[in-house]
Amino acid sequence: MAVFILRRLMQAVLVVLAMACLVFFGVYLVGDPVWMFVSPDMNQADIAAVTASLGLDRPIWEQFARFLWSALQGDLGRSFVFGEPALKLILSRMPATLELATAALVMAIVLGIPLGLYAGLNPERAGSRTIMAGSIVGFSLPNFWVGIMLIMVFAVILGWLPSTGRGETATYFGITSSLFTLDGLRHIILPAFNLALTKIALVIRLTRAGTMEAIHQDYIKFARAKGLSQRRIVLVHLLKNIMIPIITVIGLEFGTLVAFAVVTETVFAWPGMGKLLIEAIQRLDRPVIVAYLMIIVLLFVVINLLVDICYSLLDPRVRLGEVSR
Amino acid sequence: MSRHRMPSRHRAALVAATAIAGFGLAAAAQAETLTIGLAAEATSMDPHFHNLTPNNQIAQHIFDNLINQDEAQRLVPALATEWAPIDDLTWEFKLREGVAFHDGTPFSADDIVCTFERAPNVPNSPSGYGTYIRGKTVEKVDDYTIHIKTENPYPLMATDVSTIPIISAAHCDATTEDYNSGAATFGTGPYKFVQYTPGDRIVLERNDDYWGDIPEFEEVVLRPITSDPSRVAALLAGDVDMINIVPTADLETLESRSEVALHTGVSNRVIYMHIDHWREQSPHLTAKDGSAIDNPLRDQRVRLAISKAIDREAIRDRVMEGQSIPAGQLLPEGFFGVSPNLEAEAYDPDGAKALLAEAGYPDGFRMVAHGPNDRYTNDARILEAIAQMLTRVGIETSIDTMTNSVFFSRASSGAEGEPEFSFILVGWGAGSGEASSPLRSLLATHDPDAGMGASNRGRYSNPEMDAILMEALGTVDDARRDQLLAEATELAIGDLGIIPIHYQVNTWATRAGLTYVPRTDEWTLAMTVTGE
Amino acid sequence: MSTAELPGAEPAADAAVPLQPQAETPFGRFVQAYVESPLAVFAFVLLVLIVGAAIAAPWLAPQNPYDLAQVSVMDSRLPPGAVSMDGYTFWLGTDGAGRDLWSAILYGLRISLTVGALSGMAALLIGMVVGLFAAYVGGRTENVLMRVVDLQLSIPAVLIALILLAVLGKGLDKIIIALIVAQWAYYARTVRSSALVERRKEYVEAAICLGLSRGRIIFRHILPNCLAPLIVVGTVQTASAIALEATLSFLGVGLPPTEPSLGLLIANGFNYMLSGRYWIAFFPGIALLLTICAINLVGDRLRDVLNPRLAR
Q1: Strand pairing of B242-243 and B33-38?
Q2: Nearest CB to B131: which of A30, A42, A81?
Q3: Could you tell me if C275 lies within 8 Å of chain B, comparing CB atoms?
Q4: What is the CATH number of the domain that holds C105?
Q5: pTM of the model
Q6: Which of A240, B354, B393, C211 is the most buried (most CB within 10 A)?
Q7: Range of the domain at C217
Q8: Which chains does B contact via 3+ CB–CB distances below 8 A?
Q9: pLDDT digits (tens, 9 = 90+) for B197-222
Q10: Which of A139, A260, A300 sits opposite C155 (nearest CB)?
């Protein structure tokens, strides 16, 4: 197992390096960030001074070499815009995004599995058809459009929930999160639901498909024959068997949630790292873009690794090292 | 640290209730929180890190300048009570006595000396204060008198000084991080720093020992809400008490709502077209069949035709929803150095066609207009409207808009280090509040070493205008300088060095019952928000 | 392993068993199975109509919304049913630049569908070649290729496209490139897993015994049998590409504003959502919703029909 994990991490480092390289040169080609920052009445000498102080006067190869050298020492550079280390900026925004993604994930499971079970067990009922049609719409609606609609309905018209922003935070067990306060929970409902929407649809479909497949399998037929109650069959036998693939997929979807948070954070003014990335892209803040990418790739690799390990623990038939089906 | 956990409107109700109950709170000491939703986020709490509107407006809450600018950018005494030139090369500033920084240290001349040392030299600063400080030497005469010397007569001394926030000498060595954490964020301003959570909020607390007018609100929360509809929704939902940069699309709805009040004022920002004056053949100009032609924009008649073809009132009504004033020069009337003789060019498509024919382009030509799409109010749509209008008089115009980082990089120095475009939409906000700023940057002959024409992306050059401008820049006498600047403006606009489109009008929205005095510099300042 | 974000990308490998021809041709049987669901038939008809409208846009639209001489800012923000200065009626109203929304939607559909189809097809081709190659060659090459695929699949498509566009800039060609890069891996994995199943089958062994060339075996024998899951993934990916383009345009990294796709029309209309001018975002939104729903429903049905394990 150790060898497997080590090999995975080595591969991740390679990918991170390749990505960093691509983005570093790519952003360099897009435009000169100096023009974003300097005030227009500055003269040439001032502009040159700014360019030099940000290190942008050097040849791109030298800039890249410097970047690599300090990256090896754990320094991913300073944001041009904020003047703070890019790593620190991103890490300080990360909890907000992770808490949003977690809340969305929980919503997807809590809403998706019961609805999917219902649709799978009663495929011909009108309710199931409505659920399935709803899940297609859930996939098809643009995220940002749904976001502003949610704000419109629940914050502006009904006044039930706050429109934007993150609520009060509290710290327990060394974790600072807005999930621990009532105000924080009120603030997270709308953005989390917005983010969860496509995942709810996904979980519904996975659960439905799993249920429909499992229901014809021998162990369910056997359980029926034994005279177990429908309730017990569904909750114990069926659910236990369809949970493994669902959990796996959901685990992997956590990464997508973190990525799509970019949209939700923009609409809901949520102070997470997705919003930081969008703003960095707009301002050509190269150190932040590169650092974000490196961190997120690492994050995904770790998530995948954890999912694979969990999977192998849950299902002894799967041997690590040949995870991809 | 007193953090209020109640949403502000509940708190307002509570305050009203206690007042009725007979506790009788003084108006100036309301225990109220003001929450403001801002369209752009400050990038730092360090007042000298980045000379940029979102940063400057936050700094203005916590720090004072020697001289402050009021809502119309007139200079008003702040940490300096009096200032005047004592000879051609020396200005004397008398400093306010009895002022203390938020950490208790008294304010004196040493703080000015320290500020002038630190402000232009902040490490990693993307755009600092060097422009305003270079060439000036500060001398401490006594604790409450300083002299600032220059090598040449310098009439804009007071204006330059009014841009620089004064920090405490006790924190002269503080880093940008120290300011962001609050360890060094002590100014003399009307509000004290409480909390800065990037992306989320800035919390300020009233400075009850402020030397000037004590602001009405005890606590201020500034929240960045960059998405336009979300910002408006936050106001409508009562989550914020005030927003800046109300999108023009929502003005009509907000006006009809009784729970919202709008506060509208003209800004110092002119939106204009910059024109390629110097290339014999310009890259984005061709004949209608696509063949190369000599740059038609070098002909004054063609430029005038373009100006006449633009229906500025239609842009105001249909694109800006009333939020602009058709422009005929660089700054709206009322500003220093503005000419009384210049009007916005009237819409005259037939005159435009006639001029084009006279200049030898009866069938017009083909042109690509460029502009940013996320910099000025409705920028891409203004450009689109202008392209429509030009196309109608025969100048077949297509547009290419891009995000402002890319746009300004290419518009200033494209592939060959020269401005890349032929015809661009840009804006200019005169931070100094007078006409020398746009004249010097946009229209003076491009001369990087002298710092003239730094943003002259059309390379317009008129030696006569340059001479008048230089004279104005060396004239300390205000009346004479005012007249010279107006003359220079008339010359440059007469040549159509640039084609002004409109002055941007800005709107702030508050919940009903609050009042805000709109500022020409577009800043949003909590201390000037008042209740009924 | 990392199953995709949309329906239908679920275990596609299972879908590879070819349909057994019985009385009629496989295609006839397929059609028969497909039309069993009225909703799916409706979706298919709708999709045909939408694609037809997009292709015929220049003849159906009263205005060319990309020709600035035909668009006037004086007509901006008119409500549905208003009449222009030139005398024709804007049945769906106009947007902020004065474009007739009906025309803009038709032309926008063209762009959205072009983006979806072109990027989908190119990604399919690349993915197919990589997947087949990997499955057939096996060994180290397969391992390396599939690690690359897996790693890319672990990074969400939206992020890949976002970063790529930050690097490439704006434009139709660029967004298509970004979407190709973001999508090819899905196809590669699908093809490879079906090809793996096929490779072990007897007919392939028979072909090898006959001494047929590799290329012939891959393209003439294995590929046709992998098509079913590819079609399913293809429809779903096309829908997701269209949606992704809309999202990217909203984030300001997609297309230039003068030639809006459906997504960009909605993103522009987004600014009018609170202003009571619902039509600017509403009608393009409906058009996008219908398009994506239709594609997804068709894809859904295709999967049900082509996947015998779900058939009861």
Answers
A1: parallel
A2: A42
A3: yes
A4: 1.10.3720.10
A5: 0.85
A6: B393
A7: 43-66+101-311
A8: A, C
A9: 988 999 999 999 999 999 999 999 99
A10: A300
